[in-house]
């Protein structure tokens, strides 16, 4: 352990990284030994990737260690070691709900999107939270107040 501390970071074994679309990279240890470092390397690789790219930019992924464990960002620096092989797994992406034959984008009408998600889960009534802590019940099918 003491001997490993004497080796400069630039000479330590790189991290082997497999991303969510199957590409493989070797990242120099000194650039990815911190979460900030690995995160910026990952985001740079997904700037121009359709569909998945925006989710990566928002951090919707996990890094999986060599034993299959998720390495949480706050523990990255204490868990990772030079020479490790890690992989990236994306979080499940929400399906775009359909409303009256057309697709509804989640950011288009957040209320309709959330109501649709509750309806898909089989919840009969959805509580609509109003300002000042008031709420009202919504009809599951029409999303209109009862």
Descriptive account of the structure:
By secondary structure, the chain is of the alpha+beta class. It folds into 2 domains: 12-90, Ubiquitin-like (UB roll) (Roll); 98-139, no CATH class. The chain contains 6 helices and 9 strands, in the order H-E-E-H-H-H-E-E-H-E-E-E-H-E-E. It has helices at residues 2-6, 29-32, 35-45, 52-57, 76-79, 110-120, and strands spanning 15-18, 24-27, 61-64, 70-71, 85-90, 98-99, 102-103, 125-129, 135-139. The strands form 3 sheets. Strands 2-1-5-3-4 form a 5-stranded mixed beta sheet. It has a two-stranded antiparallel sheet with strand order 6-7. A hairpin with a 5-residue loop joins strand 3 (61-64) and strand 4 (70-71). It is elongated and about 65 Å long. The protein starts with a helix and ends in a 7-residue tail after the last strand. The relative contact order is 0.12. The model is unreliable at 123-131 (pLDDT under 50).
What attributes characterize this protein structure?
146 residues; alpha+beta; Ubiquitin-like (UB roll); five-stranded mixed sheet; 6 helices; 9 strands
Provide the fold topology.
Blueprint: H1 2-6, E1 15-18, E2 24-27, H2 29-32, H3 35-45, H4 52-57, E3 61-64, E4 70-71, H5 76-79, E5 85-90, E6 98-99, E7 102-103, H6 110-120, E8 125-129, E9 135-139
Parallel strand pairs: 1-5
Antiparallel strand pairs: 1-2, 3-4, 3-5, 6-7, 8-9
Give the CATH architecture of the largest domain.
Answer: Roll
Mean pLDDT: 79
What is the CA–CA distance across the termini?
67 Å
**Residues in β-strands, percent:** 15-25%
